[in-house]
Amino acid sequence: MIRSVAEAGKSIRQKRQEFEQRMKETCIIAVLLGAGGKGLEKRRNIEEKLEKEGILALIPEDDFAPDVAPSITEEVVLEKSDVDIIFINVESWGSATEFGQYHDKEGVAPKLRILVPYRYHPLYGTSTGYLTDLYLTHIVKYGHVYAYDDSETTDYPTSEKIIMKLTTRHRLLAALGKI
Amino acid sequence: MDVKARQKLKVYRAIDNNYRLNVLARLHDEPDIAFNDLAKKVRIDRALLAYHVGVLKDVGLIESKYERRSKKSSKYRLTDEGIKILKEFKLVKTSTKKEQQ
User: Fold this and answer.
1) Is residue A20, in this structure, part of any structural domain at all?
2) Structural domain of residue A167, as residue ranges?
3) What is the count of structural domains for chain A?
4) Which of A77, A91, A158, B46 is the most buried (most CB within 10 A)?
5) Residues of chain A with C-beta less than 8 angstroms from the C-beta of B14
6) What is the domain extent for residue B31?
7) What is the pLDDT of residue B96?
C-alpha cells in the first residue's frame, strides 16, 4: 500500500522520536553565513567538522540550489524554514549587511549567533565601528554577540571553537527538549 | 555515537518535513525534473525550495546537475538512498520479487 505524504510524515516523526530517545541525541540544522574568499574556506572547514558531529550544516553559496541568488534565498529561508541556529561571522561588508538586515527580524533574530572580531565587540573591544552600537543593542535585546580572535594571539576563542561549542550544546538542549 | 547512527538521525531530520517529503515523492515520479518545474509541482516559493533541496542533497537523498548552457537550470533526481527511504516509509510501491526478476 502506498501512503500519502501526510501519513508518511506521521510515521517518520514517530520513528525519528523513537530513534532520538534511544540514541539520546538529536540532529539540528545550522546555517553558516559570512564572507567569501578565505571566509568561505573557513566556513567550509567548520561545516565539515559539524557534519562529522552529526549536525546538518549548510553554507548558502555551496548548498542552496544555484537557481536562486543566495541573498534572496537567505532571507526567505531564515524566516520561513526549520533552521535551528544561524551563525553570522561579521568579517566583510556583505556579512555586515546581513547582520543589519536580520538583527531585528522577528523569527530570525532569536536564532542568530553573531561572531565579531574582538576589537569591534562593544564590551571587550576598543575600536568603534558603525556596527558597534547595533551589536550593543542586539546584546541587550537577544544576547549572542561573541568576540573571537582567529589569529590566536589573544585569549579570545576562535570563531570555529565558538561555533562548535554552541552548536553541540544547542543540540544537547534540543535533545533534552529544553529548546 | 557512531557515524552510521548519526547519519541516520540526519536523514530522519531531513525527511521530517512535508515540503521535503513532497519533493522526494515528486522526484520519484519525475526524475531529472528542472528546478523551476519542481517548484511549480510542489507549489513552493523558489527560494524556499533552494533550501529544501540543499538539505536533501546534504544528507545524500538526492543529486543534481547544473546546466550552464542556454538557460541556467538545475535538474534533480533521487539517489539510491533516496529511493530506499521512500520505500521504507511506503511512499512508493515496493517492488515484488517477481518484478525485480
Assistant:
1) no
2) 28-175
3) 1
4) A77
5) 56
6) 3-100
7) 53
Q: Tens digit of pLDDT for each residue in A23-51?
A: 889 999 999 999 999 999 999 999 999 99
Question: Which of B43, B49, B98 has the alpha carbon at shortest distance from B73?
Answer: B49
Judged by CB atoms closer than 8 Å, whether chains meet at A81 and B21 is answered as no
3-state secondary structure A35-64: CCCHHHHHHHHHHHHHHHCCCEEECHHHHC
Best mutation target, B3, B9, B10, B48, to test chain A (most A CBs within 10 A): B9
A14 occurs within a structural domain:
no
Angle at B3 between CA B89 and CA A43, to 5 degrees: 105
ipTM surpassing 0.85, yes or no? yes
Within a domain: residue A120? yes
Q: At B58, which CATH number?
A: 1.10.10.10
Q: Answer whether B9 sits within 8 Å of A75, measured CB to CB.
A: no
Give me the number of domains chain B comprises: 1
CA pair distance B90, B98, nearest whole angstrom: 19
Summarised one tens digit per residue, pLDDT across range A118-170 is: 999 999 999 887 899 999 999 999 999 999 999 999 999 999 999 999 999 99
CATH number at residue A57: 3.40.50.2300
Task: Provide the 3-class DSSP secondary structure of residue B28.
Answer: helix
